[in-house]
Each structure stands twice: as structure tokens, then as C-alpha cells.
Amino acid sequence: MKVGVITFPGSNCDQDMIYVLETIMEQETVPLWHKEDNLKDCDFIVLPGGFSYGDYLRSGAIARFSPIMKSIIEHANNGGYLMGICNGFQILCEAGLLPGTLLHNNNQKFICKNVHLKVINRESMITSKVDTDKAIQIPIAHGEGRYFINDEGLSLLHSNDQILFRYCNEENEVTPESNPNGSIENIAGVCNEGKNVFGMMPHPERASDLNLLNVDGKALFESILV
Amino acid sequence: MTVLTYKQPEVTDEMIRFHGLTPEEYQKIQEILGRNPNYTELGIFSVMWSEHCSYKNSIALIKTLPREGKYLLAKAGEENAGAVDIGDGLAVVFKIESHNHPSAIEPYQGAATGVGGILRDIFTMGARPIAALNSLRFGSPDNPRVRYLLDGVVRGIGDYGNSFGVPTVGGEVYFDDSYTGNPLVNAMAVGIVKSDKIASAVASGVGNVLMIVGSKTGRDGIHGATFASEEISEKSTEKRPSVQIGDPFMEKLLLEATLEIIKEDLIVGIQDMGAAGITCSTSEMSAKGETGVEIDIEETPVREAAMTPYEILLSESQERMLVCVKKGNESKVADIFDKWGLDSKIIGKVTSDKMMTIKFNGDIVSQIPSDSLVLGGGAPVYQRETKRPAYMDELHKIDLSSYSLKQDWNKILLRMMAAPNICHKGWVHEQYDSTVRTGTAVGPGSDAAIIRLRKTKKLLAMTTDCNPRFVYTNPKIGTRSAVAEAARNIVCSGGKPLAVTNCLNFGNPYKPEVYYCFSEAIKGMGEACEVFETPVTGGNVSFYNEDPEGAVFPTPTIGMIGLIEDSSHITTQWFKDEADSVFLLGETKEELGASEYLNTVFKQTKGDVPVLNLEAEKNLQDALLDAIKSGWIKSAHDTSEGGLAVSLAECSISNRERQLGLTCELDESIRYDCLLFGESQSRVVISSSKENQSKVIEHFGSKNIPIKLIGKTGGDRLKINNLVNISLLELTDSFFNSLHNIMESPKSAEGNI
Predict the structure, then answer these.
(1) Given A20, A51, A143, which is nearest B249 (Cβ)?
(2) Residues of chain B with a CB closer than 8 angstroms to some CB in chain A
């Protein structure tokens, strides 16, 4: 599989993502600069985490106007695969490729810690290889990660099986205490209706290297490569 | 276009005083120039000869510190930060710096720009920052203004480092009333560079051009360096405009563009603009190159209208660099900065006359010999008067019998675990991204943070340490202890101590008592660094840390780097498995002086610092590192603030995901308070499997290291003799929730902030 990783000005997880895809997953990986206008025939595009354009206005609000976004929207509309992590998720929501939005964490602070996730949609392209019997542990690191969507949108997420992950405790139970940022229904990741665009706040690339003792995130990348 | 000329205000006595120059210094300036300085020149001398830039009251003593070592690639004072060879063609570049005064006035921006400044010091040498740490000191968190400062500082550090994309992995947070009006914010950064690609802060090659790159220049931060060189008073809030504004997004772009021009070999030298802005970088780069520079100051991209040469020269606007470009590469450099959306502009050239000449629309507005401005050149050097503070003799007297031993030790231990200086600092470090760059093998919360180096087997251990109560009580021994503790933390993590950076936070150097503490601290540091073979590679001095209530505790913060040869050597403080054997290395003596116990329980700082034998400490550390490398040691944790009982509790609970109880028996031949909470030095709690128990005892015994098998892990309680018997749940609640409760639901909510 040929994977493209976009670098916006202010992206800071692009190199981490490239390292995991190229060195650990051994995939052909192409760095894509935000000023480019074609995706170089990549099959799967990743929008990595970071603070695109400093996120001074609203996370992802400016990056969605980058030149490369036109090709990305086209790619998604043609059924191409696309995944946004953290800031990438925020950009995809701003661009209207994913439903809902990401608000400031309910404690109004940046939060960096390991959290547990329960896999909800077990058949999606990024969850098919994940062991869904137990909670997976993946770090979060964000200031604006509180997922919000209106009632109508929420019921569509339910009926179309678009919820990928919920924050949960170690026992795989979704509880109010295990919700780190106040996300509606503990939602940590969603996909679009066509199940080809994925977004999540936790960072699977930070839990994919045995040297860092946690490889729960690697199953997501293994799922993609099937 | 009308060409502006600049009419300089006349220099008056009042103006000389305002610029913080003494009559003797003014006379020296007249001698250097052979005439009276004009207004612009006065401003330039004022910042360059300020304490902050010239180190005039500290440099003579700092030069006595051990600065030699076979692995050093850039020694103290030679470049923006120290550089140490770690093999595999790589060097580690690291430095710590203070941003105390700005943070006291404007905590968010003060701390943010402190982080920005230290990161630039690292990448201006061509190194990519891989980790950040902080050493923070505040007054009591019961005080609402202190909470406001702590909240602002932590958000400032977090927002800057998180956006920039460097993991903030460790450091300290310490509370004492002496810091109430003058908090300390010391930021450390660590970077990696190919050892043959270290960039230098030099301007050379007559005819090469100078380019200013990065942000536009504004009026922010003018005289920041001078502001940092005086005491804080009620008037200090008027100096808010002296505090710079940080833009981490700009810094991230500047990082990428800077590393690209260095990698492409387009430049001769580069220096970031921190204190004293363009003035400092031009004069230092030309003095180092033994050249001159000629600057057309009106070419500087500015973001405010009608800025005078004086203002442009002294602005401390952030996220800027001065680059000396190899002739012919100007457009290549400009293209790289343009790619990253950044300004670059040619503002001058290298000359042969050794003068820093500033022109404004063709008129010379300042002309000064470069060397006369800089540290090691013409900047003044003083050694001040010292006097042993009167408080010390009284402080050292302690009558242990006055402290009752009829205590509920369970309750006391819980109180100690919740004390602000001991409790878990999750409220702080969860606001920092500690996992970006996917290199963090051990994040905040163990003895040292550990970062792996991609494409090698090696890892770096890093820590900042200083127990300022020890230094206040006994400056020389206290500073030795700071170095010893830093080295112990590195060794407990499986690393070999490599080198030190220091941040020396003291009061007004013109007060003999303050200068006594400073000079004693330097002596103690020098002695300890010799023994641990950790040369001082640089750092920063911050004087004038005083508010109207007095000076802060003398605080020589030690930042230390260690090398871990293989990931199998990584060691953390928490117990690993049931039924493991637990040992205490080192001796517990009847010492209670300067302890956190006396501070927390009796609100006292009393008694002399516990005895420290540097040779014995070094032997213990060497033997411990050998044992770790042999694979026998499952956990290692040094005892420091709070003593042995606190250390044992931390071993049991500090890894929240895997807590393990302990039942242990300690030798009861000394007083219970000293046994549990005394801070005897050179002690480490280690654990091993039962199978390796005899090897461990024999190993340390053969090296004459005191070792005692004290107990074994298991269960869900901490039991120490018949003194302590507490559930881990209770300990966890005290330890992990204390700071969160203080900050989020404080008891005293009222008061002015």
C-alpha cells in the first residue's frame, strides 16, 4: 500500500507517523507538502497531529484552506481512504469530511495521558484487526478534543454505525469517569457515512513501537494493511 | 520616498542612571569610544553590560567550575549551548535557562518565551530538540496569587512546547514562601545533532552577508535584559511591556527552516536573538569571528510604524535569528525561508574593522568595537564582597529531643505524601505533551526521564535537581547534594552521568550575604562535578531574585544528562513483581536537619544539611550502575525529600497501573522520625528477584557499599516495622490527588491576584 502523510505548517506528528508506517509497518510512505496539489497516487492519506497554522483561530480552521485540501476532498469523494489523527481529525471536521466538531476540553486544559478505548465499530477498515474483547490503551494529547455533534447528527452516527471508539476504563466499560475531555457519549473517533474517512483524537502512532512498551495502536495500522 | 534621519536625544545623567550603568562603567565607555556615547550607543552598552548579558558579577567564579572533559564538543561559553559526543556520530546539545522576572509579572508569556528561548539555543546549533524539562519554584499554593502564577506558567510552558512539538518530560515543582513574589522558571532543552554538523555562532569572511530571519521586529521586550537585572518591586508590573510575546507556530517554522539551511551547508554561522536582540547577536557573532559588521538597520522587517534605530536594536521580539550567509547563497537561503512562509532579509555584511557599525538610511547612528561589548571582551568583570549570613549559625542548631516521638506515623506519612513538595505533580505534567516525537521511553514521574535515540541502541536520561532548603541551610554542601542527587537519579534510571548544565538563581549580588551563598554554591558544585566526572557545559545566572520580603532560597538548579547504552538497562522507581526482594543501599543516620518532615509537620527549617561523602556516593553509584547492567535490578529509587518512608511508598504506588505493597523491617537503632523521614544522603531503594538476591548482596558487599535486605513486595499495604501500616489506596489518594485538589478546589479562594 502506498501511504501519503501530509505536512501542514505546524504539523508536529508527521515524522512520527512516517516512522511508524515506513520503518515499523514497512510500507511505501510519501511525505506530502501542503502546497502540493496532487496526492502522488497514494492509496491511503494520513493527516497527522500537530498545531496547523498554530491553531490560533480554531483548530484546523485554516488548514482546511491549504492547496492540498482540494485534492484530498476529491480523493475522499471518490471513495479514497483518509485518516485524521488529533489535529488531522479537527481538520477533517472543519472541512466537512467528517461529522461533528472538536471543542475545548471541558477542564479548559491541555491533557496528555494514556487512555483506554473501546472499539465500537468492529468492521471498519481501521478496526478490523483490533482485539475488541479488551480495552486498548493509546495516549491522547490535545487541548481541543471534546467531540460534539447535535442530536440529529448523533442519531445518524448511531444508525450508520459511524462511531469507531469510545473512551472507557481498563475493564472496557464506558463510564463518565473514563471520559477525559467531556466528549459526547465518550466518543473518541468516528468515520463518515461511506466508511472511507476516519478520524480519532488518540494517537495510535505513539503506541506502535515495542521500544516504547505499548503496541496497542499498531493493530489499527495492521487493520488498514489487510 | 522620504529618507528618514534620526535625531538622537541628548544623553543626560538621568538617562545614564535609567540605563542601569554606574558612573565607573560610563567612564569606561568613554574610554573605549574616546568620546561620549550617543543615545543609541548608551542603550547598546546598557543591555550588553547588563548582568543578564555580561555575567559581570558571576563570570569570574563560574570560570572556576570544571569545564573539561574528553567528550565535550562545545564547552561552556563557546556556543549557545554545550555539546557532548555520545558516539555513533551523534552529539547531545543541552542547556537550562531562567525566565524568572518575566514570569513573575506575566506568567503565561514569561514562561512561554522562556521555553522558546531555550529551544532556539538548541536549534541554532543545528540540533533538533528532542525533549524539554522545567524546574519551577513558587510560594505556598495556599496563596491565590501563587496559584494564578503556577496556572499561568504551566499553561505557558504547555502551550509553547506542545505546539512546537517537543515532549516536555520532566523536571521539578517546588514550593516555599521565599518564592512568593519571585517564582523561578528554569527551562531546559535537549537536542541531537550529527557531531560534524554543529553550527557555530560566528560571523566571518569579509563580504559575507548578514540576514535576519523569522518574525518581524516589534517594540516588545525592549530592555528585557536590563529588567532582568534588578529586583522585583511593586513597580515591576509597569515593566509588563518588557515581557516578550511568544509564537510557538513561528518557532516551529523557524526550526524547520533553520535546520534546512544548516543541512544544506549554506551558512557560516547563526545565532538566535534572545536577550538584547539584534545588538547581542551581531556583536557576539562578530566578536567571535574577530571581524566587524555593518548593519543597515532600516532594512529590518518591522511590524510597527516609525520604530527608531534604538528600538529596533534593543527589541527582544521572539522567534528571530541572525544568519551569516556564505556569499552567493543568499537566494537559496531566502527560498528556504519562503517555503516555510518566513521573512528573510539582508541587513548587513561582515567587515574587517572589528567594529559594530549601525547605519540608518546611510547615517551612522552607532559605532562601537564589537569586542568591547561582549562577555570575555570589554564587558566589566567584578567579584563582590562576601559575608556569611548571620542566620546560619542559629539555623544549624537543632535539639532533636524537642520533637515528640509520640506520633501516629500512618497519619504523618499520609500528610507527607500529600505535601506540595512531595505529592505527584500530575496536575502539572498532564498539561504538557510528553509523548510527541514517539521517543519517550520513561516520561514524568520516575527518577529521570528517558528518551530513546532512533536508529541507535542508545537512550538519554535527563533530570533537573536542587533541594533549595539544603542550599539555604548550607550553600556548599547543599549544592554538592544537588549534583549528587542529579547523578543518583541518572544512575537509578540506568544511565551514566555525562555532563551538567546549571541555572544559578540568587538574590542581589551586591548584598554580601547573597554573594557568599553564590560563591559557596559554586565551590560545592565544582567539587561535586569533579567527583562525578560531569563537566559544566554552560547554563545561566539569574541574580536579583528578590521581592520586598527578601531573597529567594539560593537555588542552583542542576540539569544533568546521562547516557543509557541499551534499552535493557532502563530502570524505573516502582516495584515490578510480587515477592521480589527489596534492599536499602547506604546508611540511615540520626539526621533530621533541613528535612521536608520538619517543614511539613513543624513549619520549620532547622538543623544542618545531612552529611555527604562524595567518594562514598560515587562508589555507590558506580556499583549500582554495574548491577543494573548485569540485569539484577528490577527497580531503583533514590531517597531525597521526605526520606525513606516516602521513597518506599513511592516505589509501591507511583506506577498507578501496577501498584505493589511492601512489608519491611528497618533497623530501629535510631529515632523513628529520623528513620522514617530523615534525609540522610546517598541512599537508594532497589529490588531484585528472589533468585538474584544473593548475587546482589555479594556484589554491593564486595564493594563496601552498605546494603540491607529490608523486605519483600506483595499485597496491597505498605508495612514498615510496627510503625506504618497503610493501604495503598489511602497512600494513592494522598499522593495523587493533593495538588489537583489544591489547584482546582482551593480552601482559600479570596484574595487579590
Answers:
(1) A51
(2) 155, 158-159, 162-165, 247-250, 252-253, 340-341, 429-438, 440-441, 452, 454, 567
- Could you read off the pLDDT of A155-186 as tens digits, one per residue? 999 999 999 999 999 999 999 999 999 999 99
Listed residue (B549, B465, B472) closest to B506, CA to CA = B472
The burial of B697, by beta-carbon neighbours within 10 Å (0-12 exposed, 13-18 middle, 19 or more buried), is given as middle
Average confidence (pLDDT) over A48-55: 95
Contact B442, B450 (CB under 8 A): yes
- Decide if A109 touches B, using CB distance below 8 A: yes
Which residues from chain A sit within 8 angstroms of residue B340, using beta carbons? 9
Architecture of domain A2-224: 3-Layer(aba) Sandwich (3.40)
| B247 contacts A10? CB cut-off 8 A | no
Do B249 and A56 count as a contact with CB atoms less than 8 A apart? yes
CB-based contact (8 Å) between A31 and chain B?
no
Cα A195 to Cα A216: distance, rounded to the nearest angstrom: 22
Catalytic, A203? Answer: yes
Q: Among all residues of chain B, which has the CA nearest to that of A51? A: B163
Determine the residue type at B281. S
Write the pLDDT tens digit of every residue in A187-219: 999 999 999 999 999 999 999 998 888 899 999
Which of A86, A93, A168, A191 is catalytic? The answer is A86
Task: Determine contact, residues A70/A78, Cβ cutoff 8 Å.
Answer: no
CA B477/CA B395 separation, integer angstroms: 15
DSSP string, B63-130: TTS----TTEEE-TTTSSSEEEEEETTEEEEEEEEE-HHHHHHSHHHHHHHHHHHHHHHHHTTTPEEE
pLDDT along chain B (753 residues), means of 10: 72 91 95 96 94 93 92 84 94 96 94 96 96 98 97 98 97 96 97 95 96 92 71 68 83 96 96 90 95 97 92 92 96 96 96 96 95 93 95 95 96 98 97 97 95 94 98 98 98 98 97 97 98 96 92 97 97 98 98 98 97 98 98 98 98 96 96 98 98 98 98 98 98 98 76 44
> How confident is the model at residue B255, as a pLDDT?
97
**How far is CA B355 from its chain centroid?**
34
All cell numbers assigned to B505 = 538563581
Q: Which of B155, B250, B438 sits opposite A205 (nearest CB)?
A: B438
CB burial string B648-671: b at 16+ within 10 A, e below: bbbbbbbbeeebbbbbbebeeebb
Asked whether the beta carbons of B515 and B384 are under 8 A apart, the reply is yes
Identified catalytic residue from B19, B52, B101, B223: B52
Write out the DSSP string of B15-59.
HHHHTT--HHHHHHHHHHHTS---HHHHHHHHHHTSHHHH-TTTH
Choose the closest CB to A9 out of B159, B253, B454: B253
- Cβ–Cβ below 8 Å for A16 and B162: no
Binary contact (A110, B249; C-beta < 8 A): no
What is the count of residue pairs from A and B with beta carbons less than 8 Å apart?
A: 84
What residue type is assigned to position B600 of the chain? T
Q: Using a CB-CB distance cutoff of 8 angstroms, which residues of chain A are in contact with residue B567?
A: 211
Reference B484, options B434, B528, B548, B530; nearest CA is B528
A56 vs B: CB within 8 A? yes
Q: Is B99 a catalytic residue?
A: yes
**Contact yes or no for B43/B29 (Cβ under 8 A):** no
Say if the Cβ atoms of B249 and A9 lie within 8 Å: yes
Render pLDDT for B199-226 as a digit per residue (tens, 0 to 9). 999 999 999 999 999 999 998 878 766 6
Q: What is the pLDDT of residue B752?
A: 44
Residue A38: CA count within 13 A, CB half-sphere: 2
Mean of pLDDT over chain B: 94
> Which pLDDT does position B751 carry in this prediction?
44
